[in-house]
Write a structure and sequence with these properties.
single chain, Glycerol-3-phosphate (1)-acyltransferase, about 40% helix
Length: about 200
């Protein structure tokens, strides 16, 4: 872990004052895909920072290249928390984002992803999940798929703002799910989405 990585974790805790709840799930080093609701560019940073140090070393947040590759500070930060930057605009047929993510995972890393794709407003209902999580589960059925609900982060860094506002937030991490044999894509994605929403009420 670099000095910048430690600074990111400390700043994330300072600005968000986050609390972390593990419900029917333990912070283990098995390969996982943490999938969460998405309302802020800070989501990936906060969730990564909320993990225990030994998990942060082997967990890579998946982030949008068009946002995190701009300027000099964002790329430096992205490198510090070992983000996997995915190009959402130039998608090649023989090199899909799913294949890239699975290749980068290897047999070591876990990932943090946001199945909604884009951000939703904190006042909006969580959007439908895109198909990426389904195809990752289908290609790697051994992976634990861990739902996460991130609360109040959209108010810390509202859409269009540059500087975060210190507020309290809560990160709830739930029990892993798996793709069931023969389960249709639409049913799986709905079940995965509901597993995140249930954490909001827990």
């Amino acid at each position: 872990m670099t000095l910048t990585s430690h600074a990111i974790v400390l700043l994330a805790k300072l600005f968000s004052g986050f609390t972390v709840r593990w419900i029917d799930c333990q912070p283990e080093t098995s390969q996982r895909i943490y999938f969460a609701n998405h309302t802020s560019h800070l989501d990936a940073v906060l969730l990564w920072s909320a993990l225990p140090r030994n998990l942060r070393k082997i967990t890579r947040p998946v982030a949008a290249k068009d946002y995190w590759a701009k300027g000099w500070l964002k790329p430096h930060m992205a490198k510090s928390f070992n983000a996997l930057l995915v190009d959402r605009k130039e998608i090649k047929v023989h090199k899909s984002p799913i294949d890239i993510m699975l290749q980068q995972m290897g047999d070591v890393y876990s990932l943090i992803i946001f199945p909604e794709g884009g951000r939703s407003s904190g006042d909006e209902e969580m959007g439908a999940f895109k198909s990426g999580l389904f195809y990752m589960a289908k290609k790697r059925p051994d992976l634990e798929l861990v739902p996460v609900y991130i609360d109040n982060v959209n108010r810390i860094l509202p859409r269009g703002e540059v500087l975060p506002v210190p507020l309290l937030s809560c990160i709830t991490i739930g029990a892993p799910i798996f793709l069931e044999a023969g389960e249709p894509k639409s049913e799986f994605l709905q079940r995965a989405r509901e597993s995140v929403l249930k954490l909001k009420e827990s």
